[in-house]
Known about the structure:
Helix content: 25-40%
Number of helices: 4
Strand content: 25-35%
Number of domains: 1
Amino acid sequence: MNLEKFRDYCLSLKGTSEKFPFDESTLVFYVMNKMFALTSVEFFASANLKCDPDLAVELRERYAAVEPGYHMNKKHWNTVLMDGTIPDKLILEWTKHSYDLVVAGLTKKDRAALENL
């Protein structure tokens, strides 16, 4: 997985925007102003993705390249190392899972606005 492919996929998801809210190197992807993915544009060594708490534990146990979310709520976020050991397909599936979790948590008003985009 490379940064361009990851970025293109994130931006292909409905209602997604990107910002640098923390510093000039931490790229954050949002859906309706709620973050669902974070990564570094300087190194792209990992990405933080929201995850169902039970699945988060399962993925950490199964894959050495999945760790508790760095600087995030470790119950709800995983850090996925981009070390080549996890297939791109899985990383994209987990990114979509993160997006879907955030969408599910949106207010009715924001979900309706997203549907109308």
